[in-house]
Amino acid sequence: KLFFTDYGNAAKVERCDMDGMNRTWIVDSKIEQPTALALDLINKYVYWLDIYLESVEVVDYQGRRRQTITKGRQIRHLCGLAVFENYLYTVNSDNLSILRINRYNGTDVQALARLDNAKEIRVYQKRTQAAGRSHACEQDPYGMPGGCSHICLLSSSYKARTCRCRTGFILGSDGRSCK
Question: What is the pTM for the complete model shown?
Answer without folding.
Answer: 0.83
